[in-house]
Write a structure and sequence with these properties.
The protein is α+β, with helices and mostly antiparallel strands. The chain has helices spanning about 25-30, 55-60, 85-95, 120-125; strands spanning about 40-45, 50, 65-70, 75-85, 100-110, 115-120, 130-135, 140, 150, 165-170. The model has no long low-confidence stretch (mean pLDDT about 95).
């Protein structure tokens, strides 16, 4: 388990790093309507593909945790996150026997390439791995990845995909992005970014 902190430990400021407002027109339209029409697609090697609204996710059991975000750039900040455990979603859709990785497809792009990230099932099923829809007791703002972002607390910040639109279960990364398992991994970062 990653260390969890108290309310008193929360940082006064949590930096909004990386993309802070995706330029994608479809995303901008969703944000303008308060994400009412947003749906999380869950597909790939699953028994029961799903399309879940933000309200669907809020109706599921939630987890709240106060954890430290460690950025590869050298800064850290502590915040309170609330969301649905990824394990709950995976149980709902049924993981296929060939699935080895969970891939997160996002709404933001950097230098013309769509952001994506991935984790294995050790992290996907970990109790602290959540799909967060709140930060510090308020709905996740766009700056921090609204309407949904990944929190995988045992790894560095670049693994914590923001603006999650689709979750795909796969056997291999070969046909996704540059085939290395994530936007930054395709550019030379380590796939496993444990802290």
């Amino acid at each position: 388990m990653a260390r969890e902190f108290t309310e008193a430990d929360r940082s006064p400021v949590f930096p909004g790093n990386g993309t802070t407002s995706p330029e994608d027109a479809d995303y901008q339209a969703l944000a303008a309507s308060g994400f009412a029409a947003w749906r999380l697609e869950v597909d790939g090697l699953v028994a029961r593909p799903a399309r879940l609204s933000l309200e669907d996710l809020r109706r599921l059991p939630s987890r709240t945790q106060i954890t430290r975000h460690d950025c590869v750039e050298g800064w850290s900040a502590i915040a309170k996150w609330t969301g649905v455990p990824l394990r709950t979603i995976l149980e709902q859709v049924g993981v296929g026997p060939r699935a080895r990785y969970v891939v997160f497809h996002c709404a933001d792009s950097i230098d013309g390439s769509r952001y994506y990230e991935s984790i294995d099932f050790d992290d996907a099923l970990h109790p602290q791995t959540i799909l967060a829809y709140e930060i510090n007791d308020r709905p996740l703002p766009v700056e921090y990845g609204a309407p949904l972002r990944l929190r995988v607390e045992r790894q560095l910040g670049y693994k914590m995909a923001k603006y999650v639109m689709r979750i795909e279960l796969v056997e291999t990364f070969a046909a996704i992005g540059g085939g290395k398992g994530g936007y930054w991994e395709d550019r030379g970062y380590e796939w496993y970014a444990g802290i």
